[in-house]
Design goal:
The structure holds 2 protein chains of 2 kinds. Chain A has a 5-stranded mixed sheet with strand order 5-4-3-6-7. In chain A, about 40% of the residues lie in helices and about 20% in strands. Chain A contains 6 helices and 7 strands; from the N terminus they run ααβββαβαβαββα. The model of chain A has no long low-confidence stretch (mean pLDDT about 85). By secondary structure, chain B is an alpha+beta fold. In chain B, strands 2, 3, 4, 5, 6 and 7 form a 6-stranded antiparallel sheet that branches. In chain B, helix 2 packs parallel to helix 6 and helix 8 runs antiparallel to helix 9. The N and C termini of chain B lie far apart (about 65 Å). The chains are: A alpha/beta, B alpha+beta. Chains A and B meet through helix 2 and helix 3 of A and helix 11, helix 12, helix 13 and strand 1 of B.
């Protein structure tokens, strides 16, 4: 029995190796995290907004193609992504909605006052429940939701000029046309 | 020709490493002195060969030899000489060569400086070092050959990522690798001890300096990396809980536990199998770090371009090295004779608490880093992990560690007197409470946690001072007596005090970072930006040509109460080759606070985005790291570690055992 204790580190290590091996399988790519939510109805949410205006609810977004962007003031990659979001809002006129994830509203307000606010409305998700429902892995993450309220695409990590041109804008065009 | 010679040297090194890993081991088992001695010459030869390979690669970089694929991908004739040299390890293949170079350096040092080691132990240690060398040399030669040629050679190279063209990052990898790889020596000692089935005080004395030296290098490496992130990324952050940062932080945490638990083995001859396990885990985590960075299983800003073939190879290597050593541990460790039980309130009890808390901290970081990966592997829901996770879990775990850190050194071995120790720490209590109340009054209760953090740092710092004062009996006896005691105090004691003070300084810096104020605005030429007590005046922005970039250099006057204090020059550098922009922040520090100014984009009306931060105590974060590493080096210079002392201790012990004493 006492000897079995000394086996524990080895067993723990092999469990770890099994996980690493799973992560190395060819289909796994951390950049395009597969989401169980793709082509599923987006999880419903009804959040108080940063501006104090009417609540941001999924039901209110139906009938248009929207981008939902999870961000936070404490998140450095979000700042990297920010110019892209500004471009989406100002030049491409995309319906961009923000969800302020595990954040203090005043900190988010300060950041947006300094950098500019690309969002049509911002829902507050202080305890991250909406994030969990969406399957958010880390911020920033961006979801494309179509007119019927289904999630069509998920971007993990900051949007880049390249992913915008190659994937996001063509997809939005297609969804808007349908 | 030189390139092929380098390649050939690397292949030769592989075969030498093979000989090094087999012959001494067999020799030690059979008591064949000649075979055991092979370990020593093989380690030195292997070092010479890998150094030659490293020199050949460096030569290819300095002469911009664009027939070598690795040079094409990572160098350019316009690149300054310093970065041509450091570019050698700014990429996956080259950094692996640096890795095995450091490994063979450690092997050579062991064979040079361990004259007093028993021949069997030395042979086994060198054999284990050789095995690790075989694994990594095979990895380089089979999956990541830096000497691959290209034909026809292109007119010029693709250049090095501009973000990496920075003095801070140029020397960050060598220190980090010296730390990572240095822990291979304590690992080899642990495995050799398991093979021999003997761990005693002398073993701990041999292992500890290696662990301590690696720990110092790792401390410096991590501090440099964090400092680099602080001043180049331009956002004023200094730690992002990024997987790669965590990969270097985890061996540091366990390595810290190791240098503490080996004291217990040395002084009290107990906690043996635990210390052996820590030595194995520390190096295992260094290897896991290497795996995470290079296999592409986690996304990170630092990660090298990933290749699944490499991931599989490193995973196999992990299984062999860590799985093999843990199997040996499972078989042999139960037979290691443990010391007796000991009282929870004692120096060794405090060191065990230190170990438990450090392990918990490391486990948290480990979970936070790999959790997303684990959940994905079992097809579960995805949960988020980031700053909030680490802030809420890791930080509170460090509070009891810091509290105990003040008391532990004042407890005696075997049976400590907790009330007595706390009584002698009244001054530290007083200072911590004054700092806490003063801080709360000054900040008007706005940043309670940060104030408590600084109070905790004050507690750790003052208790280190109190501990020293107790030892030299400051103010209790004559100046002469105190002076004599201060001189006779072992350097290891000074090392400990310094390292603990370094921790206090770092903790204060980290806590105070929440007092930072920032102001980010568009400023036209001639405009002002207020920040804290200062006003920044944007005088002009000039285009300045650099070696392989053009820079927008802003001249910003810093004024306080209207008086000009300084002119700072933040830059934005544009590297046409990579079409990439980097930010050179201007940091003006007086060691108590940083004024941090970064230049952002220009808008269409000609105004510039300026990000300014005033960050009190932030330089202390790295200052504390330097003090910690300096404390480690002071401790290393203690005469206890000098050649021969450990051997005499073991001889004395055997003599005592023989006479039945």
């Amino acid at each position: 029995m006492r000897k079995a204790v000394y086996l524990l580190p080895l067993l723990a290590f092999f469990a770890l190796v099994a996980w690493f091996a799973l992560a190395l399988r060819p289909s796994y790519d951390p950049q395009t995290l597969p989401s169980a939510m793709i082509d599923q109805p987006a999880p419903a949410f009804d959040l108080a907004t940063l501006s104090g205006g009417p609540d941001l609810a999924l039901s209110g977004l139906k009938g248009q193609v929207v981008l939902v962007n999870f961000f936070a003031s404490w998140c450095a990659p979000c700042r990297v992504e920010h110019p892209i979001l500004m471009r989406l809002a100002e030049q491409e006129h995309v319906a961009l909605y923000g969800i302020d994830y595990k954040d203090r509203p005043e900190a988010a307000r300060q950041i947006l006052a300094q950098l500019g606010d690309p969002y049509r409305a911002i829902g507050l998700d202080p305890d991250g429940v909406t994030g969990i429902n969406f399957g958010v892995y880390g911020v920033p993450e961006t979801y494309v939701i179509d007119k019927s309220g289904q999630i069509r695409k998920r971007f993990v990590g900051p949007l880049t000029a390249e992913s915008l041109e190659r994937e996001l804008l063509p997809l939005l065009k297609k969804l808007n046309a349908s | 020709m030189i390139i092929e010679a380098g390649h050939y040297a690397l292949i030769l090194a592989l075969f030498v490493a093979l000989a090094q890993s087999v012959l001494p081991l067999v020799g030690a088992a059979r008591g064949n002195v000649g075979w055991m001695a092979v370990g020593r010459s093989a380690a030195l030869t292997q070092f010479g060969l890998i150094a030659a390979a490293m020199a050949a690669l460096m030569y290819a970089y300095i002469t911009s030899d664009f027939t070598v694929v690795n040079v094409i991908q990572n160098s350019h004739t316009d690149k300054p000489l310093l970065y041509q040299i450091t570019g050698v390890w700014g990429n996956h293949e080259g950094s692996m060569v640096l890795w095995v170079f450091m490994l063979s350096l450690c092997g050579a040092l062991v064979s040079l400086f361990c004259d007093n080691l028993p021949a069997e132990l030395r042979a086994r240690v060198l054999a284990v070092q050789g095995m690790i060398g075989v694994g990594f040399l095979l990895f380089i030669l089979l999956t990541s050959d830096p000497f691959l040629r290209a034909f026809p050679p292109p007119p010029n190279g693709e250049g090095l990522n501009p973000v990496l063209q920075d003095p801070g990052l140029a020397f960050h990898p060598p220190f980090l690798y010296l730390g990572y790889v240095g822990f291979s020596v304590s690992f080899s000692f642990a495995v050799a001890a398991l093979i021999e089935g003997r761990v005693d005080a002398a073993w701990a004395r041999w292992v500890r300096p290696w662990a301590l030296a690696s720990w110092c290098a790792l401390t410096i490496g991590i501090a440099m990396g964090s400092w680099w992130a602080y001043y180049t990324l331009g956002w004023g952050g200094w730690w992002y809980w990024d997987p790669v940062e965590n990969a270097s932080f985890m061996p540091w945490l366990i390595g810290t536990a190791l240098i503490h638990s080996s004291i217990v083995v040395e002084k009290r001859d107990t906690l043996k199998s635990w210390t052996v396990l820590l030595a194995i885990i520390t190096f295992a985590l260094s290897l896991v770090g290497t795996f995470l960075v290079r296999s592409g299983v986690l996304t990170s800003v630092h990660a090298f371009a990933s290749d699944p073939r490499r991931g599989v190879f490193i995973l196999l290597l992990l299984v062999l090295v860590i799985g093999g050593s843990l199997t040996l541990y499972a078989v042999r460790a139960p037979n290691l004779k443990g010391g007796g039980l000991f009282a929870p309130i004692s120096r060794e009890g405090a060191l065990v608490l230190n170990n438990v808390l450090l392990i918990c901290g490391c486990a948290t970081v480990f979970l936070g880093t790999l959790y997303p990966l684990f959940l994905d592997a079992i097809g579960g829901p995805k949960l988020s992990v980031g700053f909030p996770f680490f802030d809420r879990t890791f930080a509170p775990m460090m509070v009891p560690l810091l509290l105990a850190m003040g008391v532990g050194p004042l407890l005696a071995w075997k049976r400590g007197d907790l009330p007595g120790a706390l009584q002698r720490l009244w001054a530290a209590f007083a200072v911590a409470i004054v700092v806490a109340i003063g801080g709360l009054v000054v900040t008007q209760g706005a940043q309670v946690l940060a104030v408590l953090g600084i109070a905790l740092a004050a507690w750790v710092f003052t208790s280190a001072v109190v501990e020293w004062a107790e030892r030299v009996r400051l103010f209790r006896t004559g100046i002469g007596d105190t002076w004599r005691r201060a001189i006779n105090l072992p350097r290891a004691a000074y090392g400990m005090s310094l390292a603990h003070m370094g921790v206090a300084v770092t903790v204060a810096g980290i806590s105070a970072s929440s007092f930072a104020v920032e102001n980010i605005q568009l400023v036209p030429i001639g405009g002002d930006l207020p920040i804290g007590n200062f006003v920044l005046h944007l005088a002009h922005v000039d285009k300045v040509p650099g070696a392989n970039f053009t820079a927008d250099d802003a001249a910003i006057e810093v004024r306080r109460d209207g008086a000009l204090i300084a002119t700072v020059h933040p830059e934005r550098r544009f590297f046409p080759l990579q079409q990439q922009t980097t930010s050179m922040t201007a940091i003006r520090t007086n060691l108590l606070a940083d004024l941090y100014v970064a230049l952002g984009d220009q808008d269409d009306k000609g105004a510039w985005t300026i990000r300014a931060y005033w960050k009190p105590l932030v330089p202390w974060i790295w200052l504390g790291g330097v003090i910690m590493a300096f404390g480690g080096m002071v401790s290393l210079s203690d005469r206890r570690w000098r050649v021969g002392v450990a051997a005499r201790a073991r001889a004395r012990m055997f003599a005592q055992a023989a006479t039945g004493d």
